[in-house]
Design brief:
- By secondary structure, this protein is α+β, with helices and mostly antiparallel strands.
- It folds into two domains: 3-278, no CATH class; 307-414, Immunoglobulin-like (Sandwich), CATH 2.60.40.10.
- The protein is 40% helix and 21% strand.
- The chain has helices spanning 3-6, 11-27, 60-81, 84-88, 91-105, 119-141, 147-155, 161-181, 183-189, 191-199, 222-226, 246-256, 281-303, and strands at residues 39-42, 47-50, 53-56, 109-111, 114-116, 205-209, 264-268, 307-313, 319-320, 326-336, 342-349, 355-356, 358-359, 365-367, 371-381, 389-395, 401-408.
- Helix 3 runs antiparallel to helix 13 and helix 6 (119-141) packs across helix 8.
- It is elongated and about 100 Å long.
């Protein structure tokens, strides 16, 4: 085995992965397939933009399924990979790594988590942390407001007090975290680290010190100095370990100069039983649930209609017109979930299929892509007994039915007579 193979480091892979995640988080708000954001929660329309499709707030069941899928994925990932998320992908770790890397480039020293050095260099580092915090805050708002709209408002000084306050609070929180806490969050405050201990299984991926070969240890403490949370991996598994692999690289480098492999490695389970230890009842159960719910979410998302119609009676009481016909005031909510313009019209019929007249703007209704429209009108029914239920159809330009809904009609005695018929005067 060559020296290069013995001292092969995983640190560059971790850094590359972190930069890939950073670019993805910064770039996702700018990606708009079909003029719909790849991922964004639109507050104004109460809708979720996901993979170029729009999910309205009334599709709550999809939100619930998505939340359940993410929760199960979190459990599966934790059961298999442990705290690899913490060491390789967590924004807290990525930002802290970037700050500490910048500090070293400025010639500052890191002593037990404290940054020491010349005042001017420390001030430069704090300016960098402030700028980084503002970027993080702005990037977070891009997941609620499209970036092009954000920059237009910024250039015109029209961000609004709410957005400015939100950015200021987020930026201040991130800055204080980077300036005062950093690794303490991972070590003492992060709830995930404590929660993960309840999920660790005999097959969970951990950093493991090979005790059978402990006699080869140089007692150089390189692994302790390299650990961002300050633990000693030689004492066995500890909850503060974030699976970053810095101790692994340090041990490989220290022993590699003697032509010997390192004593620290990634293993599935603290006993190092290999991949076979993954197949535990707990992982099989949670993994199966994740696959089933994910399949259900995909099916529900694919089969959802592109156009929906919801109809409800207004609070205004129905009336008897002077012609003897009866008018019921109705509100319709039309949603166009597609990325195309929609022109449609509303029609109504009774139980027997006979058409019912509509009074109001119910023809040539235009909806833009991923938009929602509220339409108010009056449904006119004959003067005899109430038909009981009215059925509404939303029809496209070719007369095809896009969506349907229905509303129950009040009995005859519920209708108000015209003022003249009731003997009222104005």
């Amino acid at each position: 085995m060559s020296l290069r193979q013995i001292v092969k480091r995983i640190g560059p892979w971790r850094v590359a992965w972190q930069w890939l995640l950073v670019l993805a988080i910064l770039g996702i708000p700018f990606i708009r397939p079909g003029q719909v954001s790849l991922f964004r929660l639109d507050i104004d329309s109460l809708s979720l933009h996901l993979f170029g499709r729009v999910f309205q707030i009334e599709e709550l069941y999809l939100f619930l399924l998505l939340t359940l899928v993410l929760l199960l994925f979190f459990l599966v990932a934790t059961l298999v990979l442990g705290r690899v998320w913490c060491g390789w992908a967590c924004p807290q770790t990525v930002l802290t790594d970037l700050v500490e890397w910048t500090a070293r480039r400025l010639g500052l020293r890191l002593v037990r988590g404290q940054i020491q050095g010349r005042l001017d260099k420390r001030l430069a580092l704090h300016l960098f942390m402030a700028a980084l915090s503002l970027l993080v805050a702005a990037n977070l708002t891009w997941y609620f407001i499209p970036p092009h709209e954000f920059f237009q408002r910024l250039m015109a000084a029209r961000l609004g007090s709410t957005m400015v306050l939100a950015i200021a609070v987020i930026a201040a929180t991130v800055y204080l975290d980077l300036a005062l806490l950093r690794r303490l969050v991972c070590k003492d405050f992060c709830p995930y680290g404590r929660f993960q201990t309840a999920l660790v299984d005999r097959g969970t991926l951990v950093l493991h010190f090979t005790e059978d070969e402990a006699s080869r240890c140089l007692r150089c403490d390189a692994c302790v100095r390299a650990c961002p949370t300050g633990i000693d991996i030689r004492r066995g598994y500890q909850v503060e370990c974030i699976n970053c692999g810095r101790c692994l690289d340090a041990c490989r480098q220290a022993l590699g100069h003697q032509g010997r492999p390192g004593l620290i490695r990634y293993t599935f389970g603290t006993e190092g039983r290999g991949l076979q230890s993954l197949f535990s009842p707990r992982l099989v159960l949670v993994g199966t649930a994740f696959l089933v719910v994910s399949a259900g979410l995909v099916v529900a998302a694919v089969q959802r209609p592109e156009t929906t119609l919801e109809v409800a009676r207004q609070a205004a009481p129905p009336r008897i017109l002077s012609s003897g016909e009866r008018a019921i005031f109705v509100t319709a909510y039309i949603s166009n979930r597609s990325d195309r313009d929609l022109t449609c019209k509303l029609t109504a019929r009774d139980v027997a299929g006979s058409p019912l007249p509509l009074k109001g703007s119910t023809d040539k209704l235009h909806l833009g892509p991923t938009s929602r429209k509220k339409v108010q009108f009056a449904l006119v029914i004959p003067g005899d007994d109430s038909p009981g239920t009215a059925f509404f159809s939303l029809k496209g330009g070719q007369g095809d039915i896009l969506a349907e809904s229905s509303v129950s009609l009040p009995p005859g005695e519920k209708f108000l007579k015209p003022a003249a018929a009731r003997g009222e005067t104005r």
